[in-house]
């Protein structure tokens, strides 16, 4: 109970800026939890990309199709749809994966901007508390003729608000860095898996039972020119 009472008193001494910093810290925690749940659903992990590439390298294309069908995650979903529904034509498959990867990455980056804003804003709010505390300090100093006991409250407000602002910024920066790194890993896995899928398009399409596969993009161009003629 003493610890809680001390915490409340500590918070009160920080001034009105502490309420804004408290709201910012709750906001950061909320975003962190929400993003963690979303990434748990959307990110299959680096093990998926490793297994996918291993099957491709060994020519186990049926296992590749089964892997993309059964695994969760954005990369697996895009690959399965690209192989089973869009692999007749090389250009169509490439375009589909490019569009869907952009949509997936946009969803992964959702709310990350707010973390960046909080990293910048929290220290500024702490600085505002510092200025407010110093103004109070000098005002009391003039009134009380420099009594030490009269100016400690303002100094305390200044230091507490600054410390709180830095703590919130550090937490927000840590959360942002963690999820940014996961997004970079996902981008790397996407590029690697999509490139391998395009290079093995014909074999994967046949393994998925797709009929009418155009052997090369060149044939697709010739067919299109024949239709126009």
Main traits of this protein?
10 helices, about 85% helix, about 230 residues, mainly alpha
Describe what this molecule looks like in 3D:
Helix 2 packs antiparallel against helix 7. This protein has helices at about 1-15, 15-40, 45-55, 60-70, 75-85, 90-110, 110-145, 150-200, 200-205, 215-229. The protein has about 230 residues and is mostly helical. It has one domain (about 1-205).
Helix share bin: over 70%
Q: Give the topology string: H per helix, E per strand.
A: HHHHHHHHHH
Low-confidence stretches: 217-229
Shape: rod-shaped
> Which class of secondary structure composition applies to the elements?
mainly alpha
The amount of beta strand, in percent, is under 5%
Main beta sheet: strand number and arrangement? none
Number of helices: 10
Summarize model confidence as the mean pLDDT.
83
Compute the separation of the termini in Å.
Answer: 86 Å
Find the count of extended strands (DSSP E, 2+ residues). Answer: 0
Tell me the Rg in angstroms: 28 Å
Number of domains: 1
What's the arrangement of secondary structure elements?
Blueprint (H helix, E strand, L loop, with lengths): L1 H12 L3 H26 L3 H12 L3 H10 L3 H12 L4 H19 L3 H33 L3 H52 L1 H7 L9 H12 L1
Helix pairs in contact: 2-7, 2-8, 3-4, 3-8, 4-5, 5-6, 6-8, 7-8
């Amino acid at each position: 109970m003493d610890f809680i009472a001390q915490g409340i008193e500590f918070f009160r001494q920080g001034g009105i800026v502490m309420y804004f910093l408290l709201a910012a810290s709750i906001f950061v925690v909320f975003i962190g939890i929400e993003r963690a749940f979303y990434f748990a659903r959307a990110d299959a992990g680096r093990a998926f990309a490793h297994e996918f590439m291993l099957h491709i390298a060994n020519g186990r294309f049926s296992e590749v199709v089964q892997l993309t069908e059964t695994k969760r995650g954005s990369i697996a979903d895009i690959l399965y749809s690209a192989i089973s529904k869009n692999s007749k034509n090389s250009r169509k498959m490439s375009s589909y994966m490019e569009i869907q990867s952009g949509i997936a990455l946009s969803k992964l980056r959702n709310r990350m901007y707010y973390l960046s804003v909080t990293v910048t804003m929290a220290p500024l709010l702490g600085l505002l508390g510092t200025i407010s505390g110093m103004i109070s300090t000098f005002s009391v100093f003039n009134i009380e003729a420099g009594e030490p006991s009269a100016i400690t409250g303002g100094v305390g407000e200044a230091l507490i608000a600054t410390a709180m602002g830095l703590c919130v910024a550090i937490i927000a920066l840590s959360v942002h860095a963690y999820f940014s790194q996961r997004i970079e890993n996902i981008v790397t896995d996407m590029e690697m898996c999509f490139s391998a899928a395009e290079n093995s398009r014909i074999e994967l399409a046949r393994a998925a039972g797709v009929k009418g596969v155009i052997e090369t993009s060149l044939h697709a161009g010739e067919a299109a020119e024949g239709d126009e003629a």
